[in-house]
DUF6965 domain-containing protein
Amino acid sequence: MTIPEIQQLEDFFAQAGKQQVPIYLNEATVITDYEHFLESHLTPLKANPEAKVNIPIIHRLKILKLLIESNA
């Protein structure tokens, strides 16, 4: 993921505003603290956007984005 793509995700979440929790991404992943979730996922992406270890983080952020878009 590139820095501009990360910035686009960050901008999207900033414009979407705070979401009501809990948010179920799937059967095993529940977001109970929205701000903490975003911070804990965006920080490592910005620190090392090319790391393969970030692939699950990118996946979870994209799922969250799709859920927010579908509920808008």
